[in-house]
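Entry 12.
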Amino acid sequence: MKSQATQAPAYILQAIRAYGLEPVHTLGVQKGYRNQSYGFRMASGRLYNFILYKQEPGIAKRIIRTHAVANFAAASGLPVRTSVSSRIIKLQNAQAVRFGALYNYLPGETISWEAYTAKHIKLLGQALGELHSALAQYPKAAALPGIAQEYAKIFSQMIIYFSQPATMQAVENKLGIYLPVNTLYELKTLIAACGKLPGQQALHMDFVRSNILFSTRPSLRISGILDFEKTGNGAPIFDIARTLAFLLVDCKYKTEAQTRKYFLDSGYNKRSPVQVKQTFVRVNDTRYDLLETLINVFLLHDLYKFLRHNPYEYLAGNEHYTRTKDLLLQRGILHQL
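Predicted 3D structure (tokens):
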């Protein structure tokens, strides 16, 4: 990231100084869903990130468990962004209380999914497998939020949303699609059952483009794994399905067969210490392919977020929405009217 002349807000500079550091250059700000990341260079040349988290319930506890899991993964030799200090800065004004923390600065850059080559996707699968192998030893995984329980709650919210007659009518009339609510009930039941799968461990759960840094020096490699804010306890297949759902939507210049081969076969299974095997779960006399079903879960959740946060009239121009919808139609989850 190049230095910029723009200065960070005074309260951010003050927070950096609370760690006994005096920044001499601001490297700009990167805005994410849950945080804002400010890069700084010190007189010594060392680089840091100060991350300011958004105001939300339980954020301080979330930051603490983020640090614990990320620091454990980094201690295993993985290129994970870690906290520089255990100190969490509290910033308060008349409107809000927010928290921030200081982190090491990792080299590399994020790239668009459109730019992902087969090599990028293989490295992604390898890195996720290596992360799962390391986090399988994390001793406090059971104290993390249960991923199956969290997604069961999300699907309860989705059921309420899609059960509203006005919502269903608008989705059908404006978007020309139909989602049977029974499908959501079935998936919620399966998700809840996944809380009893063997091999529960700490997971990343946001292993996607914006959280992966690549470097080409000396050769193409993953140089940074960021943002463990969604870390939780669950079966590794949740992490795998989450990342694969993103890849299937965003790698538009790769066929689904190519993406699966590069990520699962050539990356995760062949290059990492662990492997994913086809797993079936039986719920209410129905046998589910777990990986395929969880991909549907994450695609549906993404569709729900598109609908909740965008006017329906504008969605036709949103390529990510369109590709998500088309995948769900192909997979028989949505129906075209």
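Annotation: The CA atoms of residues 41 and 47 lie 5 Å apart. The chain is about 45% helix and 20% strand.
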